[in-house]
TrEMBL record:
PANTHER family, per database record: ARSENATE REDUCTASE
PROSITE patterns xrefs: ARSC
Name of this protein: Glutaredoxin family protein, arsenate reductase
Similarity comment text for this entry: Belongs to the ArsC family.
Length: 104
């Protein structure tokens, strides 16, 4: 499993503590240094059963600057949301997004 983290984020550190307590095996990806692509975001959200607007931090200045909170939240606009999240600074989306890196 790959876990996307920001080491300065308390929720990220908490997630790692839970994984460690369960003896889970994982690799770390520092998403501030290596932001996810549109394709990676799409894959993770699909696996988690979430939509891009579910993880967007609408109160962040970058999200506010593009009017993200007013965008339609439907399948017709999903790609637009994914592209925006991939392009916005990483703090505009949720901090910890685990994904399986092995076979599906």
């Amino acid at each position: 499993m790959e876990v996307w983290i920001n080491p300065a984020c308390s929720k990220c550190r908490g997630a790692l503590s839970l994984l460690d307590a369960e003896g889970a095996r994982y690799t770390l990806r520092y998403y501030l240094e290596e932001p996810p692509t549109v394709e990676e975001l799409d894959e993770v959200l699909t696996r988690l059963g979430l939509e891009p607007w579910d993880i967007a931090r609408l109160g962040e200045p970058a999200a506010d600057a593009v009017g993200l909170a007013s965008w339609a939240r439907d399948d017709a606009h999903r790609v637009r949301w994914l592209e925006a999240l991939a392009a916005l600074p990483p703090s505009s989306s949720a901090p910890s997004s685990p994904r399986t890196t092995g076979p599906r």
